[in-house]
């Protein structure tokens, strides 16, 4: 592509209200962040349990950097697999009740590895239309047969399964446990009820891990599903566990199958051993400190109560993710900027990330009651006249 074409593309991006750029910030304890010397209440982070500010976790990272070093020095199959990695994997196995785990540099890489390995060239992949880009991107390669069923529409999924049975096609189903932009929770038990023993379910639980289920095991556990009913579980450390990286969990054979062929695993430098030690501490804190999930649940309930009382249109989400739809990109950006002028950091999310622009409110156990009341008050005071007052149904693109 020529430079002139690049310049025209960037100009069009700005005109469409879709231009993106980094904003340098420093996250602080108590649900705050600093940007250019100004303090904001942060409602755009994914630190759902507030573990990012836990002194024990920070100390674990610092101690591990001194004891284990910050560099793994290679890929996991060469020199990158160290005691810190093995012990983190053992902790994850015990927590989730799985036979084996693979660690990845990101949840994006883990999702790509999961689908590329477990969806065979002759399989039909059935994927929820709103699944994350890391799952959708695999479809653009043209190497796999796929269909996307309407978001959370299990009747449509059942019809697709029936049609595949008539055609004698092997099927793999993939979905998210908690959808990252809508906050709704998938009923894994209901999906599994539609599937036969030969139709595997792959689950991305990046936003459910740590938050839902007994000891924060995830959305599948919250629905009473045994982890063995999933062929493979993807989750990450970058949300409720307050770290970085991702992992795949499942049976010994499934994980070894991925290990043997995943380019994302074989050709990437392994996670820092210091980070692995910190994430081991994070999992232990997550399991033990139930009060964090209880505080988050209280904050979610308070926000939803205040928002309804104030007449704000909110989505039907009972998770930390509370989207408010906007009429268009311009409305979303204006609302976000007006909120920042009042000390609220709440980012506008726009297409193509989502089919319709929105403010994605992200609640945390770190937030105080006063901060949540402030959020609702300022949302009402700055709401554009073009903002939609209902968000229950999100149109598909």
UniProtKB/TrEMBL annotation:
Cofactor(s), names only, from the UniProt record: pyridoxal 5'-phosphate
Domain Aminotransferase class I/classII large: 41-379
Entry annotated with the keyword Protein biosynthesis: no
Keyword field: Aminotransferase, Pyridoxal phosphate, Transferase
GO molecular-function terms, A-Z: transaminase activity
Keyword Transferase: yes
Signal peptide residue numbers: none
PANTHER family the record matches: 8-AMINO-7-OXONONANOATE SYNTHASE, CLASS II AMINOTRANSFERASE/8-AMINO-7-OXONONANOATE SYNTHASE
Protein name (database record): Aminotransferase class I/II-fold pyridoxal phosphate-dependent enzyme
